[in-house]
Amino acid sequence: MQRKISLFILLTFFAALASLQFGCSGDTETPDDGDVSVSFDINEPNMKKALGDDDGYALAIHYGSDIHGSLETCG
Amino acid sequence: MGGLARRVSYIKAFRHRSNGEVPALYLDAGNLFTDEKFINDQLPPEILAKNRWVVKGYSEFQHDAANIGFADLPYAAELLKKDGYEQRVSELSFIKKLTSANIHPADDSKIAPAPYLIREVMLKRGGTERKVRIGIIGLTEAGQILVAQKQNRYAGFTIEDPFQAVKNILPEVKSKADMIIVLAYMSEDQAKNLANGNPEINTIIVARQLSSTNEPQHYSNATITVANNQTKYVGELRYYFKGDGTIENQINRYVGMDPVIPDDPAALEIVTNAHNDFTNQQNNATQSNIQPTAMLGGSGNGLFVGAAKCASCHQEEHKIWENSGHARAMATLQKNGQQLNNACVGCHVVGFQRGGFQSLNTTPQLVNVQCEACHGPGKFHAEKPQKGYGFMATPQGCVQCHDKTNSPNFNFSTYWTKIKHGKAA
């Protein structure tokens, strides 16, 4: 009985390991927020207005498109 | 407006304010690379450099996923070459964040992009902490020129029908994700059909060189919002959840990337290096004495015929055009010293970066906003004139250039009277 329990624990361990390695698409990722320190005042009135009110949202998606190869600020 | 340095600053400020309490992702809905001068299945060195800096910038500053639009394919083909792929990914992690469910390599020399990506975030607001898995699917339509050529193959990739592709992939994504976002490089009408036919989708972010800052629309279970052309405005979707973890509401804002947002110093360094690298490569190319004909690249070489050709049948319309501001669009740029600014040129010529206008010297026949700037490439219509060519939705087509940033006084009914023209006599 003890041997069966040991075998079960061992199999469960390897199954969990395999699931971590191959179970999902392989493209699952937890985003790293990285360095979010800022060198300017986020409470400066215009900046504060740009940020908008914090009204209790739980998740934010920022998005854009069509930069077509340009990282630059344009006129 | 716009630019990586301001965008990075804003996103950092947003995350800083929430003090790690609100997870935030950045998604690019497509057309992040340029296919300018793509000829004989090759991009010239200066364009490769330009695109390489986009990948470097996106790798350095957290960008969580990007959709591969049809115009991205020439450079995506470079990134997804099997040869040296692992090395490239180890240097530029962002390559693994490219996604498309309907782009497939035409042969085995390339790696298929991930059809979808899963991002796991921890929600900390609204009761107990819980993990949410976000499925992100990329889709693109085939471009106008590919459709005109009746092709679905470009730069060594095939473009599958996006509606069929999403039907195939959704059950798998649904089994692995709690919510699904589609990045859709297609028209808003197509996105509405996508939402109506697929109730599993929660959000569709549409892009296709549109400049909307309008309210999002709701179809079936999806909120549809449009990314701003060139990301002059960053879209910000805020999600609110019910106690059971399902989405209660999505609210959208557009944040102007104007001078109020200071440049992030590290991102600005990348932008400066990108600019210098591109300029050096371009100077080298000029010195290597490239013949003008070799410069006629892009995704639809020779499909634009120019207004003079249109005038041979459409004399009346041509006269109206000659007297309009559209016929003097380049002069406006020259007056402001912006005639070499790629970000501006596209709205003052025909087919820029689409196999049309290249420069004042090499393609002078395609300067100014001529017929094909609105009605599309006219080669096939000129060869075999028949009904069906040239329809343009208004005002949607107009606001691609007459957007809030560049044409703040635009009003369709008053502007239309200046260029009003009808069917061929």
Q: Structural class, from secondary structure content of chain A?
A: alpha+beta
Strand order of the largest sheet of chain B: 5-6-9-10-12-11
Average pLDDT score of chain B? 88
Proportion of residues in β-strands of chain A: 5-15%
Sheet having the most strands of chain A: none
Cα gyration radius of chain A (Å) = 24 Å
> Compute the gyration radius of chain B: what is it?
22 Å
Helix share, percent of chain A: 25-40%
Helix percent of chain B reads 25-40%
The largest chain-to-chain contact, stated as pair and per-chain residue counts, equals:
A-B, 45 and 103 residues
Biggest pleated sheet of chain B: 6 strands, mixed
Order of helices and strands of chain A: HEHE
User: What fraction of residues of chain B sit in β-strands?
Assistant: 15-25%
> Could you give the distance between the termini of chain B?
43 Å
Oligomer: heterodimer
Shape of chain A: elongated
Helix and strand element order of chain B:
HEHEHHEEEEHEEHEHEEEEEHHHHHHHH
CATH superfamily of the largest domain in chain B: Metallo-dependent phosphatases
Tell me the total number of β-strands of chain B: 14
Q: Which features characterize this protein?
A:
heterodimer; A: 75 residues; alpha+beta; 2 strands; B: 425 residues; alpha/beta; Purple Acid Phosphatase, chain A, domain 2; Flavocytochrome C3, Chain A, domain 2; 6-stranded mixed sheet; 3-stranded parallel sheet; 14 strands; 33% helix; globular
